[in-house]
Structure of cyclic-guanylate-specific phosphodiesterase:
Amino acid sequence: MGYFARGFTRQHIVAIAVGVLVAGAPLIAFNFWLSGVIDRQGREEADVSARHAIALAERRTGEVIRTLDTLSAAGVVDCGSAALEAMQRATFDAVPIKEIAILDAGGRILCSPQQRGTAIERDVVRRILATEAIEGAPGYMLDMVHLPGGKPMVRFRRPAGSSPNAIAALVPAGMFLPHVAVHAFEQELRDELNGGLESGREADGLYAAVETRGHLILAEFGKRPAGQAARDGYTAEHRSPKYGFQVLIAVPNRLISAGGAEVRWLGLFTAGVALALLGVFATLIARRDPHNPVLEIQRALAAGEFVPYYQPIVDITTGQLRGAEVLVRWKKPDGTVVLPAAFIPLAESSGLIRAMTLDLMRRVSDEAGKAIGERPALKIAFNFASKLASDETVVKDVYGVFAKSPIKMTQVVLEITERDPIESFAATRQIIAALQSLGIRIAIDDVGTGHSGLSYMLKLGVDIIKIDKMFIDAIGTDRNSTTIIETLVDLAHNMRMDVVAEGVESFEQVMHLREIGVRSAQGYVFAPPLPGRAFLKLVDAMDGLGEQPVPAPIEAAA
Ligand SMILES: Nc1nc2c(ncn2[C@@H]2O[C@H](COP(=O)(O)O[C@H]3[C@@H](O)[C@H](n4cnc5c(=O)[nH]c(N)nc54)O[C@@H]3COP(=O)(O)O)[C@@H](O)[C@H]2O)c(=O)[nH]1
């Protein structure tokens, strides 16, 4: 109890209630929807059954009328042996007819192939309950007949030729409403109906009837619902356009819903399992390790915690600002600033580097776009992971950023490092060409540190080479490094490429680089990577300076 009291706060209870609601609402909605579908289906089935029953009653009536018409036309008007034989054959051929008889003008049976004995004897045991003319069949009368101990019968009768006699056919009432007429019902309904029809017992709330327009009931089972019972169910009614018969099938709602019980349970079970799986999935997502570094980067990216720092690039022959290299920093909400070495490798391996690079470009455009755009001589360089340089869709994205930016394409430099191997030389070459066609320039970064070989990298058709700090550090101490730098500078000049020296930390290095013909350099001797505001101040301050000697170092801001 103590644990419960301590462990569950109001928020927990609200969260659980919300969870139950969120999980339960779709189930309730689904159940609601399913009930609607089942009810609609049940009603449609009742309608279909009623239409079947009407079709059947029409077919049977038509068959009886055709048979009697044929006999009458063939001269079957009395009790001669030929007439009796024809009546016997017709009884055998017409499925619904159980007996054909010749009646006298008073309606008494004169003879029938199925009946032996005198007419008087037969009339004593046969009772006429009701009589009505048949709509759509001129000259025909319909009698409801009761046989002793037998099932209810329907008798069709017409004049026998021009004689005063009549010819009549006896049809069991059940022929107008057999169980096949309701075959479309769900199993439960079928059982009810069949049970009702075959056993004679009252179907539980289910009612079906075929009646004439004058409400003479030809066949029925069940108890006709009235009042509330009628309101608590659905009644399908269909009328025969030929003979005016009407079929009524009344199904209580209880049976309609019962018909779909299996479907409902199956549906609810499936929906429940799907929701449970969703729940498990959602829990797993919620429980994902909050310290997963890739998720952390993803979150920080969405929160805008990756910001650009700008390291100035200086013309060491004039002292003018030539532009800047953008270096990303992770500014955490607690104020700590994380250097790229701690997250760039993971951003690259997880694929987040693309979003990060494009985000950085947009931020630079927002923050320094105006200042840079107003000074066309300034260039802005971005580190461009070699993975990105082999993805052709990136060209469109980079274009999308700078097409809307005050920074012109011709001011943009993308630095591809020599340190990482190139995944596909052909694709990279193509993408570089596409970027260059926009006016963007491409630099090889960290030259001298990779395994690809400079000549291989140069085949990519780049515009700038950036000499790595490693060689700059060795100026004045290692002759080989100095020779390598001189060779690189010569090579670059011969190939009409620009050279930028990186990681320049001393005035001696600046002097040496200037002597061997290097014009652009970046390094702590001028400035560390600066946050946006400091960089913009520097851009402003450098405006007034004409051709000046190399500027004095600026204090690192981060
Ligand atoms: N794909 C991307 N990679 C990026 C991005 N931003 C940075 N990086 C990569 O991280 C590497 C390390 O960057 P950083 O820690 O910012 O270091 C740079 C400078 O701060 C540092 N530097 C510059 N001048 C000096 C100096 O005089 N002395 C000294 N000790 N260090 C100096 O060097 C790094 C310059 O990097 P680069 O020119 O790119 O080689 C960095 O190397 C990038 O690969 C990014 O947005 N995307």
User: Anything to note?
Assistant: Residues 311, 325, 327-328, 339-341, 344, 353, 357, 360, 383, 385, 417, 445-446, 502-505, 522-524, 529 surround LFPHGCPZ (CB under 6 Å).
